[in-house]
Amino acid sequence: MSLPSQEPQAVDPMPPADAEALKNAAVQAFVEWTRRLPVPPPNSQEFIRSVEPKTRRAARIYSTITERRVVWKEGPTHGSPVVTGLRRQASSVDLWAETPESLRNSSLSVLACSPCGGVGSSPCPKCKGRGNIQCWNCRGTRKAYGYAKDNSRRLMNCRQCDASGRLTCSGCNSGSVSCAACLGHGREQRWLEFVDSVRSDVLVLSEDEHLRRLVWTTEGMEQDAKLVGEISANGVLTQEKVAQHLPEEWVQEHWGKTRVPLKVYERITRQTFQVFEVPAARVSYGIADAPSTTVQFEGRRMLAPPVAEDRQLTTRGRKVLAVRLPLIAVALGIPLLYILRGSFFWNGWLAALLFSLGGFAVVTDRLVQDWTLGRRQKIRQWRRGMAVYALSAIVVALLAEPRLFEARRYISKGRLDDAQTELQALGEPESPELQAAWTDLHLAHALREQQVHEVAKDALAMKPGSPERAQVDQHLLSLTRQQVLASLGRKDVTSASAVLASAHPVLAQGFPKDIGELTARLYEAEHAACTTDPCRWKTLSVALRAEPTPSREQRLGQARATLVEQLTPRPRPKAATLDWVLHLHKTTALASELADTPYDPQVSVHAKQALTWAREERERIPLIGAEREVAISLLQLTASSHPNILSKTTESVALSCELRDGRCVGAYLAGADKESRVLNNLKRTPVTKELLSRVLGHPVELPAPPQPRGGKPPTQTTWKDGRVTLVARWNGIYLMELRVGEVKP
Ligand SMILES: [Zn+2]
Ligand SMILES: [Zn+2]
Ligand SMILES: [Zn+2]
């Protein structure tokens, strides 16, 4: 490589900057920049106080740096020249003084080939130098299977190796191969070569540090700066060369910084020095009479500074935002309050209120914006707008409010639903100034209404004793009478009762006689539908109580006499017939129903006495001797699988009775539980006693356990009750079964 040449190239003279265009670009850049601020002011260029365009210089040095090393190369020779040995050492080479050719020529050395030791051949690796290999067919045994002439397969002499067991090696010539490294010449040659690797370095110099901080100085500098001159050299550029194109003091100051740090084997092989002109603009701005803020836009693209460099416009934007929030709250919050006050307010006035408050908020926001920008002449105009919208909001809010005279107007026109909405919106109905209007509304509504429960509701909402209430009560009474009588005429007791129940709370005090009479009629209708004597007596009792009349009194007396007659004990027949048992059951049912009646204490006493009488009479009838039907009715016996056996099983004791000629002649009692049939334990004794008493027709005690006789207790005892024989079977003191009358074991 030749020594670095210094061939300076022509440098363009710097053209004068177009100051006007630069200014315009700066203003545009300023406007763009302010748009990134909070609440950017419209026409932000109005706040620019001065634009100061300027051109600054920047330089860029590209250095190409080459790192050079010396390496040995080696290769085969042509023919077998004389061995020279190594002619040079790598350390003796001057890296930058010699050319590649001279280095190669002076270092070219011939040496004996090291893989073959200078012989030029080596033993064949396939046959290990023997020149033949084992026969693959017979594997060296000389014999191999094959087909004979008669087509039989057998062991024969190997045909591949002619029965020698070995084959000639195909990879060599009599066991040796030519050396691959020296191509058989037995020599190798070596020489020295340069190996270069190249890197580059860029350095930017500028008039002030501010410029160097910008990103574009390392990338895409051409976009923002204009190249005005360039000097290149094969090698290092000298200060003298550069000094011809730049102010001397600038070179004095900055040239020292251009030195590139190099490593041991490195050298600068080319350098290019570029001079740029960078347009820039200082923009000063301020709101009203505040002190100026100055920001700088750089490069042909007029790159903006960070937003944080602004103070004035940001502070002003925050003020606007601070006012905007409460404005939004007012514009949306007040209509929301009206919405929450109830459906009365959900109308066109609310929309108008929303519109007025929205307008007020918008105008106020604009006022704050212009005021913070110091635009006084516009403020006056916004103030007028604020006043108009505020006034309109107040008027609309007043118009949206409910009014008493409006409610009265609706009542007089018969628009009662509208009147009610208006009154409800006015507030509590209890407040004295509204009470009269509410009374009028209820009166109007009640007199128009045909539904008893609706009229009753109106009446209850009115002040008792007032003439309006009396009017409504009268209307309600006639409506009730009409509807109850109509319902009773249709025999529809349910709806009559419902109508009466609705009217009762209102009319019970003022019209007791009318309500009483209607109530009595209602019970009389129920009486007519009665199917039993107690029902008739009860309905007549309540009817008489509701409204006493002599005829009601007389009818009740008759119904009562019928009941008392039914409850009066009858003489016992000689034989207990089924009719008698059924009469006792009927009396018991009737007496149970009337025993606790609240209507007549005497009837209650009669009923209780009849209950006792019927029970005692039932208990007097013995099962033994009773006809089949009487027995079934008396003790609720059921027919069993056997045609002559009736049985009854209580929870603990089983009773069966044996029939002969349609009469019960014997009974059998045992525990119902198969596991334990004991009849006289604590749980079963009362049941057994009761059943035995019913079997015999009078109260009896269970037999006592028999005394042991001769050491062993008897297992059976027998005794008589009148003419009936009873047999008990025992297991020690336990009563296991009872047989009464003629019953087979
Ligand atoms: Zn060799
Ligand atoms: Zn062979
Ligand atoms: Zn070989």
TrEMBL record:
Transmembrane parts of this sequence: 321-340, 346-365, 386-405
Sorted UniProt keywords: Membrane, Transmembrane, Transmembrane helix
Region (Disordered): 699-719
Keyword Membrane part of the UniProt annotation: yes
Highest rank taxon of the organism: Bacteria
UniProt cross-references to PANTHER family, sorted A to Z: PROTEIN SSUH2 HOMOLOG
Name used for this protein in its record: Uncharacterized protein
Organism: Myxococcus fulvus
